[in-house]
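Project channel, design review

CF: Before we commit to the Mesobacterium hydrothermale constructs, I'd like one complete example in the thread so the newer folks can see what an input/output pair looks like. Taking Twin transmembrane helix small protein.
RD: sounds good, go ahead.
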Amino acid sequence: MKDDPLFILVAVSMLAVVGILMFGIASFAKGGAFNAKYSNRAMRWRIIAQFIAVVLIVGFTWIRHKG
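CF: and here is what came back for Twin transmembrane helix small protein:
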């Protein structure tokens, strides 16, 4: 499974979600002007990345279940 390109894409997408989440949490913790400028944008990026990750996960399981 580690050599499957779709599995690697799913893993990368999940790591991207975690990275964006950590950036958002750090911006909340920092506060001030940085928080005001980047917190909402980071959470929007996270939601988009999560959507992509979920679609990839569902697609991966659907493809593997069929074949």
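RD: helpful, thanks. Residues 32-66 form the longest helix (35 residues).
CF: The two ends are 14 Å apart (CA to CA).
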